[in-house]
Amino acid sequence: SQTIHQWPATLVQPVGSPLSLECTVEGTSNPNLYWYRQAAGRGLQLLFYSVGIGQISSEVPQNLSASRPQDRQFILSSKKLLLSDSGFYLCAWNRGGNQPQHFGDGTRLSIL
Amino acid sequence: GQQLNQSPQSMFIQEGEDVSMNCTSSSIFNTWLWYKQEPGEGPVLLIALYKAGELTSNGRLTAQFGITRKDSFLNISASIPSDVGIYFCAGRHTGNQFYFGTGTSLTVIP
After folding, report:
1. How far are the Cα atoms of B3, B4, B35, B103 from residue B91, in angstroms, in the given order?
2. CA distance B64 to A39
3. Residue A20, by phi and psi: left (phi above 0), alpha (psi -120 to 50) or beta?
């Protein structure tokens, strides 16, 4: 069966510091991968998605970037965090098309 | 982007009551999904719908793909305390993106 892992589960970072969140999927190959941000327990905002290694689509302009160095690895990064980057970050995968997305357990990011 | 409106925003019900919530879109979708999210966790898929008029059940949960393809409904029968959480709808027309609703928060009072 397929599983998705995100880490860390919780992160507290100072303003201006860099960020790296990692997501990996097991049990499938060539998945579509997605990064979402969720504010205040509602409303998932799609940040990035990837249909293959090195292919990244950005949905909103922001202080963040994404990379897919390996087939089942998706990384969310920032060079300098802003207070507004606080939130709950979720990674998801699917097999593309109309197949349902499956989510990781998320990373709670707090910026001080 | 697409707008998905979920209603109601929140519900407070007695244990044993039935629950109904819905999701409406400004445009036609070909796929509807329903998820449940508990605090500190990612959303978990409950039901997937792929055809207009489709009615699908998962235990005490039943979801329907609206005939107009612009809406979907989720019902929970005989609610229990572990039904507490936020329920999200998601829709897709074509392409790789699903659009998510703003969620319905469900509280079940024992």
Report:
1. 10, 8, 11, 13
2. 28
3. beta
Distance from chain centroid for Cα B79: 15
Interface test with B, best of A1, A5, A42 (most B CBs within 10 A): A42
Which two three-digit tokens encode residue B59? 């235990």
In 3D, which of B33, B88, B87, B70 has the Cα closest to residue A94?
B33
**A-B contacts at Cβ under 8 angstroms:** 51
Does the CB of A41 have a partner CB in chain B at under 8 Å?
A: yes
Which residue in this structure is represented by tokens 């029968």?
B77
The shortest CB-CB distance from B100 to any of A32, A44, A49 is to: A44
Burial class (CB in 10 A: 0-12, 13-18, 19+), A16: exposed
A103 contacts B43? CB cut-off 8 A: yes
CA distance A16 to chain B (A): 25
How far is Cα B34 from Cα B71, in angstroms, rounded to an integer? 12
What are A39-51's pLDDT values in tens digits? 876 789 999 999 9
* pLDDT tens digits along B61-75: 999 999 999 999 999
